[in-house]
Design goal:
The chain is α/β, with parallel strands linked by helices. The protein has helices at about 10-15, 15-25, 45-50, 60-75, 85-90, 110-120, 135-140, 160-180, 185-205, 210-220, 230-250, 285-295, 305-315, 330-350, and strands at about 50-55, 80-85, 100-105, 125-130, 145, 225-230, 250-255, 275, 300-305, 320-325. The site of fructose -6-phosphate (F6R) has 14 residues, from helix 4.
Amino acid sequence: EKGGYEHFMLKEIHEQPKAYRDTMRGRMNAAGNKVILPELNLTEEQIKNIRNIQIVACGTAYNAGLVGRNLIESLVRIPVENDIASEYRYRAPIVTPETLVIVVSQSGETADTLAALREGQANGAHVLAITNVVGSSIAREANSVLVTLAGPEIAVASTKAYTSQLIAFTLLGLYLAEVRGTQSEPEVAKILAAMQSLPEQVEVILAQKEAIKAYAEQIAEHKHLFFIGRGVDYAVAQEGSLKLKEISYIHSEAYAAGELKHGTLALIEEGVPVIALATQESVLEKTVSNIKEVKARGAHVLAITHEEHKDDLLRSVDQVFVIPQTLPLLTATLSVVSLQLLAYYASLALGHDVDKPRNLAKSVTVE
Ligand code: F6R
């Protein structure tokens, strides 16, 4: 049932190209310049009236929402807030009938996320669920459902569900942008074309797993490490950090690169591994200056970037891992795959139960 893989997690990491294709299939027109999402169940007028969006979820699904915010704000220019479901419920969120609440849940059964959905509905909001399980409680109660077609996810650590959520958010952002006229048809076509290449580009990363494994064996000897990045890279850093903690039990923190010097830089000492995500051209120089700050304190830095920046970065870091070139908006769907593999191989090197990490359950149906 593990299809020849040693663990479900590794199998599911390898199923991502298929999960991307399945989640995109049938959701764009033949000309490749329009997204089709009848399941949103929202009229043009309702979409034009949306004043704010709240994305609510837990754990990895929350982290997918961080990328979702970036996508929607860039494409549609609607203000988006991210909330952790267990916080949202109790903070008296400001929800109106012009709010679109998006709940994200692989299982569709997470108790706090379900409660957040009800909170949104009680305030008159339309609640859209992005979920991987069609018959789940969240899918049944939501006003509309955008299904991710990742297939069953068995490993406790979520991988293909997260990346399918990113695909779903991209499609959603493009669709809202079409209706609200914030992106032209050629712009939409360009993004859709780039999305079609993602499955093959994931394969390219998977083919380099030995290099990631070697690095994972290096970091497995450390007690603490840091992930840094800006923008989408910061969102991915948060997911990379969660994944690593969850299955390797190595302590790590994800930091917005520019925020380090406001306190956390004090923790950087000789030999501490820092993984710097540096895929965003527009802030690359800024990220490089943050990399230099940690290097100056003795950190050992691995940068994740595109080929064109490799030589440049090698002047300030110890190692570079190259991911295939895509649009800045879409890099999360590629860079995160390298971090999933990193967490997997670190856990493996430490001899942990990769698919069933201690203290954790696949579906959290208690509050
Ligand atoms: C981490 C992980 C958890 C879940 C979280 C929400 O790898 O899997 O953080 O993402 O418990 O679960 P769902 O998405 O089922 O609501």
